UniProtKB/TrEMBL annotation:
<dbReference type="GO" id="GO:0046491">
    <property type="term" value="P:L-methylmalonyl-CoA metabolic process"/>
</dbReference>
<dbReference type="Pfam" id="PF13669">
    <property type="entry name" value="Glyoxalase_4"/>
</dbReference>
<protein>
    <submittedName>
        <fullName>Methylmalonyl-CoA epimerase</fullName>
        <ecNumber>5.1.99.1</ecNumber>
    </submittedName>
</protein>
<keyword id="KW-0413">Isomerase</keyword>
<dbReference type="InterPro" id="IPR029068">
    <property type="entry name" value="Glyas_Bleomycin-R_OHBP_Dase"/>
</dbReference>
<dbReference type="InterPro" id="IPR037523">
    <property type="entry name" value="VOC_core"/>
</dbReference>
<dbReference type="GO" id="GO:0046872">
    <property type="term" value="F:metal ion binding"/>
</dbReference>
<comment type="similarity">
    <text>Belongs to the methylmalonyl-CoA epimerase family.</text>
</comment>
<feature type="domain" description="VOC">
    <location>
        <begin position="3"/>
        <end position="131"/>
    </location>
</feature>
<dbReference type="GO" id="GO:0004493">
    <property type="term" value="F:methylmalonyl-CoA epimerase activity"/>
</dbReference>
<dbReference type="InterPro" id="IPR017515">
    <property type="entry name" value="MeMalonyl-CoA_epimerase"/>
</dbReference>
<dbReference type="InterPro" id="IPR051785">
    <property type="entry name" value="MMCE/EMCE_epimerase"/>
</dbReference>
<keyword id="KW-0479">Metal-binding</keyword>
């Protein structure tokens, strides 16, 4: 794992939360994106080398909606950048971690993603992500 790629924060209202984080971070949201496969709308902020991803559910049965219902708004996951997501998934499996995805899937912000089960990581949902490189 190369670095923390972003921290994901679950929010109830994306529009209100974008306003809050623009004021808090003193920077504009640089991108919003619908990720239909996850039933989530996202918004991204960059401050220095760090990124924050806000996640708002688009469906009451989405993972984000269920997370907020159970735990309330707040930190949802920590994402780590990797060079080769398939290789990293194999390494994690060999180390005994349970992955929530059998194969990487398309995520927001031009990334292929995979999640590690939080029961394996002291209750923290970990995402690994690799930038999609276009030829």
């Amino acid at each position: 794992m190369n670095k923390i790629e972003h921290i994901g924060i679950a929010v109830k209202n994306l529009t209100n939360s974008i306003d809050i984080y623009q004021k808090l971070l003193n920077t504009d949201c640089y991108k919003t994106e619908l990720v239909e496969s996850e039933a989530v709308n996202t918004a991204f902020f960059k401050t220095g080398d760090n990124k924050i991803e806000l996640l708002a559910a688009t469906s009451p049965d989405s993972a984000i909606a269920k997370f907020i219902e159970k735990k309330g708004e707040g930190i949802h996951h920590i994402a780590f950048a990797v060079d080769d997501i398939l290789e990293e998934m194999e390494r994690l499996r060999n180390e005994g971690f349970v992955l929530l995805n059998d194969q990487p899937k398309k995520g927001a912000d031009n990334k292929m993603i995979c999640f590690v089960h939080p029961k394996e990581t002291n209750g923290v949902l970990i995402e690994i992500c690799q930038e999609i490189k276009w030829i």
